[in-house]
Specification:
about 350 residues; alpha/beta; 7-stranded parallel sheet; 16 helices
Length: about 350
């Protein structure tokens, strides 16, 4: 059996300058989507690697991770979501001196002062709400900073990005958007269809983000987002977070993701809307084995109906550098192309901090 944790990407070394490393260390840095879905994206349900993996992100300079506890594609109902949250709370309680759950930007500031890694939770989808829009308040209180409105496929809110009918926001979906606004939950349109995304942005009174998607103009894949959506997110005051999944950024599906490829997506978005609306959202998976196998399965083709491309992604182990592995080298690439240090700080986390300060009530 193939061990997808031993693919070349996992061992690749990205060279970076002392200047870039220092800039990351002294800036506010946030990964808006750290995909540690439980139990499928950890080596075992006990995840003995948990503290090492998160410690590496902290050592690289990250202050906050958006911990994805679960997703509609792997069950995602209320019971499954609560079990996943229990896992994270147990791990946090093993070393409370290392972590702090952040629900407000004051919590983020306190975590930095206390030298702790801030964690907020996210779920990719809406199954856990069970069409009870006021349940948003419960999850917000539990530490969920945002939840995706759809995960690739159709649900009671609207169409995901792989639905060719491209249906927009439903009546219940409108009520859910209102509940997000009411309770201070950030609206995220990653994995959502085009019409659903634009409807959500139009409906919301608060900024809307795309936490971990790349530019369709650079990589024409259904998970990517159009220029129109990038502009609409920015017009709402939100941020487009760029993921680090090699096969999403580069449709040649390379074994090693280069900073040149990532830069093309960043620079394209910046050329459209400016540096104030672009950020970092790795979509890194700690243990790749179950996800890689799933992408090659019949279920994977239901979740990612892309004429077999996701089978190729899975066969390569979905190469994705960890946030700490690539962040300083990516900063070097930005500096090399004329971006200033303040520009880099906005990309690293300053832009998301601004949105969180506005929306998290």
């Amino acid at each position: 059996m193939t061990d997808y944790n031993k693919i070349p990407q996992r061992f690749h070394k990205y060279d970076s300058s002392d200047r870039a490393k220092q800039l990351v260390q002294t800036s506010f840095a946030m990964d808006s989507l750290f995909s540690g879905v439980w139990p499928s994206q950890w080596s075992t349900p006990e995840a003995p690697e948990f503290h090492d993996v998160l410690g590496q992100a902290k050592a690289a300079g990250f202050n906050v991770l958006g911990a994805c506890t679960s997703a509609d594609s792997v069950g995602g109902d209320l019971h499954a979501e609560l079990r996943a949250l229990e896992f994270y709370l147990k791990k946090i309680n093993e070393h409370p001196e290392r972590y702090k759950i952040v629900r407000t930007v004051k919590d983020i500031d306190d975590a930095i002062t206390e030298d702790k890694l801030g964690l907020y939770f996210t779920h990719q989808g809406v199954k856990q709400f069970e069409e009870d829009v006021d349940r948003v308040a419960v999850f917000r209180h539990l530490g969920y900073g945002y939840c995706l409105l759809a995960y690739n496929n159709r649900n009671w809110v609207g169409d995901g990005c792989f639905e060719t009918e491209n249906a927009g926001l439903t009546g219940m979906g409108k009520l859910l958007v209102d509940a997000y606004n009411r309770y201070g939950m950030i609206l995220d349109v990653s994995h959502c269809g085009e019409k659903l995304s634009l409807d959500v942005i139009e409906r919301s009174k608060d900024p809307v983000i795309s936490s971990h998607s790349v530019a369709y103009a650079i990589a024409a894949y259904p998970r990517s987002i159009s220029d129109a959506r990038i502009k609409a997110v920015a017009a709402s005051g939100g941020v487009c977070g760029i993921n680090m999944v090699a096969g999403f950024l580069d449709l040649s599906n390379p074994d090693i993701l280069t900073t040149d490829v990532i830069f093309r997506h960043i620079d394209h978005m910046v050329s459209l809307v400016g540096i104030d609306y672009v950020g970092f959202g790795s979509d890194f998976i700690p243990d790749m084995n179950q996800t890689a196998i799933s992408l090659q399965s019949p279920l994977g083709q239901i979740v990612f109906p892309d004429d077999g491309y996701s089978i190729k992604l899975g066969a390569k182990g979905l190469p994705t550098p960890s946030p700490g592995q690539i962040v300083a080298a990516l900063v070097d690439k930005l500096l090399e192309h004329g971006y200033s240090e303040p520009d880099c700080q906005k990309f690293l986390g300053g832009n998301f901090y601004r949105v969180f300060k506005q929306v998290w009530k």
